[in-house]
């Protein structure tokens, strides 16, 4: 284990997500914390899941999807931090090692940081390898949508540092839209408004 998470410390570690700044090594106009990012992923994933349930007859629970999204960065607060993507995905062997560390930290946070009667329920939410694959896919789509939204906001303010990030994330979002009709529906019906100015949002249709 990378860390020993003492009994009762789980929530304390999660609350430290606000201390972790995303996009390390990048120059940004407005800093984004992992706490902010997790909130946005939860909101987006809940909307996608609700669309999936009501329009496409999916069997997952939108509320559970949102909760999984809130905790999807748990290992970053528990000791891993936010590693730059070029480093994290430098080669398959290194990526596998990082993923193992993340699983170990998630396991420690749940099984050491929480009382035993919470273990089963929280393990299926926090430990990413335990999460239902459809829920995990929706959260991943929301994760990329939130990152794309942030990257666009930086790029639209003239920050060229995010040109490559926007290009990559645009491709990822397009793939999610192709794989999941509820993601596509969210993107077509709601995402464009997320890039508008306050004045544009305030005008009647």
TrEMBL record:
Protein EC: 3.1.3.89
Entry keyword set: Hydrolase
Class in the EC hierarchy, top level: hydrolase
GO molecular function, one term: 5'-deoxynucleotidase activity
Identification of the protein by name: 5'-deoxynucleotidase
Organism: Litorilituus sediminis
